[in-house]
C-alpha cells in the first residue's frame, strides 16, 4: 500500500483502503480487482451554469451580426465544410465568402431554417456547405454578408491516407457551466494541439431549464464559437439533444439539435443525421445514436451492417466509434444503460477490430482494457467480459463539466475490465502518429494545461495488433 502523486503512472500492489478527509487534497491510487481508481479529490464546488450576462455569451456587435458560428466536416473525405451561423434581426444572407492565400474569393450559398419550440421561436439558422477545398490548406471565410460581416478561418485536413498524422480532441457532456468553460480553455491551451474535436454528445443542457428554454441553445452556441468556428467539431447526439417533452406539446425528438447542427450523413449513405461516418486523415470515424432504434432490421442497424465492411484499413488504419451512452461503465450512474446496444453491436466491433470507442453520458472519466463480452447466448451462461486483443478500448469522456455535476459513485470493487477511472472534469486528445501508433492522453481541469492524468500508446488493431494494455507488464 502506498500514497503517491497523481502524475505518477506506477501501480500499487493489492488492496488498499483509502479514507479521504473531505476538503483535503489527497492523491491516492488503488488497485482492486481491476485497474486504477484514482481518488484524486477535486475542490468541492457546486457546478453551476454561467449567468446569461457572462462574457462568453456576449452577442457580437452590429446589425444582424452572425453569431454562434460553427463548422463541421461537410463530406466523406474532408474536402468540404459545413458552415453554420445564426442571425437574429432578419434572415439576411445565407452566403459564405471563402478564400485561401493562393485562391480567388468564392461564394457558397446555403439556406436558413427556423423552428418553434413551445413558446420559443428560433432566430434564423444558416447552413452552407463549402466544397472542393484543397487539402491541408488554411481558408478564411466571412459570413454576415450585406449586414455585419465577421471573418473566421479553418485549416482543411491532409488527404486521407494510412500514415497521415492527426490530432483529435475529445470532449463530452460539455454544457455551459463555469467548469465547462474551464474544460474548453484547457482544450484550447493544451500543448498537444487538437485539430478537430470528436464531441460525444450532450451539448447545451438547455433541457434542464423550464420548458427546455432554447435560449440556452443560443447561449451555448455563442460560448463554443471561439473554438468551433475555427476547427470542426464532429457531432454525436446525446440524450440532452432529444428535447422530447410531450407535456408541453413537443413530441418531435431532436428538433432543436437537428435544426442547429447539420452533419454530412448522406455522404456515408445514412438516412439520418443521428448516425453517419466520415474519413479524416488516417481515421474512419463512425458516429452512432444511442437514442435511435438499433435493433435488427432498423435503419441504424442496416446502415452499420453495411458500413463496417466498407472500412478500408489500408486507407484509414484507425477505426474510431463515437456513441453517447457507454457500453463499459463502472460508475453507479447510467449503469448498464448502454447494454442493449452493446448486445446488438459488440460482436461486429470485435470482428472489424475497432480501435477505440469514445462515449460520454457518465460525468466522469474511465478507460477500459481491451475486452469483449460476446460469447453469451441464452443457454451457455458465458457472460463475463474477457480480455480480447481484437476488441476496442472503451473510453468514457463525459466529463466536460455541465451543470449536473460529477458522477462520483463507482461500483466496487473496480471491475477487471476497467483500467483507470476518476471522477474529475477534463478532456482528452487522440494523437495519431502513423498507421501503427497513436498517443492518447486525458487532462483533468485541476492540473496545468500540459499535465496528462492518464495516457496510453494505442497500437493499431489492423497494422500492429499486439497487446497495448497499460497494465500488461504488471
Ligand atoms: C414562455 O413561457 C414561460 C413560462 O410559461 C414564460 O416565463 C416566458 O416569458 C414565455 N416566453 C415567451 C417568449 O412568451
Ligand atoms: C471563460 O474562460 C475564458 C478563457 O479562459 C475567460 O476569458 C472568461 O472570462 C471565462 N468566463 C467565465 C464566465 O468564466
Ligand atoms: C452509490 O450507489 C449505490 C448503488 O446505486 C447506492 O446503493 C449507494 O447508496 C450510493 N452511495 C452514495 C454515497 O451515494
Ligand atoms: C510510428 O510512430 C511511432 C511513435 O511515434 C514510432 O515509434 C514508429 O517508429 C513509427 N513507425 C514508423 C514506420 O515510422
Ligand atoms: Fe447524457
UniProtKB/TrEMBL annotation:
Domain Purple acid phosphatase C-terminal: 391-448
Protein name listed in UniProt: Purple acid phosphatase
Provenance organism: Rosa chinensis (China rose)
Record-listed E.C. numbers: 3.1.3.2
UniProt record similarity statement: Belongs to the metallophosphoesterase superfamily. Purple acid phosphatase family.
PANTHER family: ACID PHOSPHATASE RELATED, PURPLE ACID PHOSPHATASE 10
Domain Calcineurin-like phosphoesterase: 167-365
Catalysis: reaction(s): a phosphate monoester + H2O = an alcohol + phosphate
Domain of life where this protein originates: Eukaryota
Ranges annotated as spanning the membrane: none
Keywords, ordered alphabetically: Glycoprotein, Hydrolase, Iron, Metal-binding, Signal, Zinc
Signal sequence, renumbered to the chain: 1-34
Class of this enzyme: hydrolase
GO molecular function terms noted in the UniProt entry: acid phosphatase activity; metal ion binding
Gene3D superfamilies with a match to the protein in the record: 3.60.21.10, Purple acid phosphatase-like, N-terminal
Domain Purple acid phosphatase N-terminal: 66-156
Cofactor(s) this protein cannot do without: Zn(2+); Fe cation
CDD domains: MPP_PAPs
Amino acid at each position: 500500500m502506498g500514497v503517491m502523486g497523481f502524475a505518477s503512472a506506477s501501480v500499487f500492489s493489492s488492496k488498499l483502503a483509502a479514507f479521504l478527509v473531505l476538503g483535503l487534497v489527497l492523491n491516492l491510487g488503488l488497485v482492486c480487482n481491476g485497474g486504477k481508481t484514482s481518488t484524486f479529490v477535486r475542490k468541492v464546488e457546486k457546478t453551476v451554469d454561467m449567468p446569461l450576462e457572462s462574457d462568453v455569451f456576449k452577442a457580437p456587435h452590429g446589425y444582424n451580426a452572425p453569431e454562434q458560428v460553427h463548422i463541421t466536416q461537410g463530406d466523406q473525405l474532408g474536402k468540404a465544410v459545413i458552415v453554420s451561423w445564426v442571425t437574429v434581426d432578419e434572415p439576411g444572407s445565407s452566403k459564405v465568402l471563402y478564400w485561401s492565400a493562393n485562391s480567388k474569393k468564392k461564394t457558397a450559398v446555403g439556406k436558413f431554417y427556423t423552428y418553434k419550440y413551445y413558446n420559443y421561436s428560433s432566430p434564423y439558422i444558416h447552413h452552407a456547405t463549402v466544397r472542393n477545398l484543397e487539402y491541408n490548406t488554411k481558408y478564411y471565410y466571412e459570413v454576415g454578408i450585406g449586414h455585419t460581416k465577421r471573418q473566421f478561418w479553418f485549416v482543411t485536413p491532409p488527404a486521407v491516407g494510412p500514415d497521415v498524422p492527426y490530432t483529435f480532441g475529445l470532449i463530452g457532456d460539455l454544457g455551459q457551466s463555469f467548469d465547462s468553460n474551464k474544460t474548453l480553455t484547457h482544450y484550447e491551451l493544451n500543448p498537444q494541439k487538437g485539430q478537430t474535436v470528436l464531441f460525444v454528445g450532450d451539448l447545451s443542457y438547455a433541457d434542464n431549464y423550464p420548458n427546455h428554454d432554447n435560449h440556452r441553445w443560443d447561449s451555448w452556441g455563442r460560448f463554443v464559437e471561439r473554438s468551433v468556428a475555427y476547427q470542426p467539431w464532429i457531432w454525436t447526439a446525446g440524450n440532452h439533444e432529444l428535447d422530447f417533452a410531450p407535456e408541453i406539446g413537443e413530441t418531435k425528438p431532436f428538433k432543436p439539435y437537428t435544426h442547429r447542427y447539420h452533419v454530412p450523413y448522406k455522404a456515408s449513405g445514412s438516412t439520418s443525421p443521428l448516425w453517419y461516418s466520415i474519413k479524416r486523415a488516417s481515421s474512419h470515424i463512425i458516429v452512432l445514436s444511442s437514442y435511435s432504434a438499433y435493433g435488427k432490421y432498423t435503419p441504424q442497424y442496416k446502415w452499420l451492417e453495411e458500413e463496417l465492411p466498407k472500412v478500408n484499413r489500408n486507407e484509414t488504419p484507425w477505426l474510431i466509434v463515437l456513441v453517447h451512452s457507454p457500453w463499459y461503465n463502472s460508475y453507479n450512474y447510467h449503469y448498464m444503460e448502454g447494454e442493449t446496444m452493446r448486445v446488438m453491436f459488440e460482436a461486429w466491433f470485435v470482428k472489424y477490430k475497432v480501435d477505440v470507442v469514445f462515449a460520454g453520458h457518465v460525468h466522469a472519466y474511465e478507460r477500459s482494457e481491451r475486452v469483449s463480452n460476446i460469447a453469451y447466448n441464452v443457454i451457455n451462461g458465458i457472460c463475463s467480459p474477457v480480455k480480447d486483443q481484437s476488441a476496442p478500448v472503451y473510453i468514457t469522456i463525459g466529463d466536460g463539466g455541465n451543470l449536473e455535476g460529477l458522477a462520483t459513485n463507482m461500483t466496487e470493487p473496480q471491475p477487471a475490465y476497467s483500467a483507470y477511472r476518476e471522477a474529475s472534469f477534463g478532456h482528452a486528445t487522440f494523437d495519431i502518429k502513423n498507421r501503427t501508433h497513436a498517443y492518447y492522453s486525458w487532462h483533468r481541469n485541476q492540473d496545468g494545461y500540459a499535465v496528462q492524468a492518464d495516457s496510453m500508446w494505442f497500437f493499431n488493431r489492423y497494422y500492429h495488433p499486439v497487446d497495448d494494455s497499460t497494465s500488461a507488464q504488471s
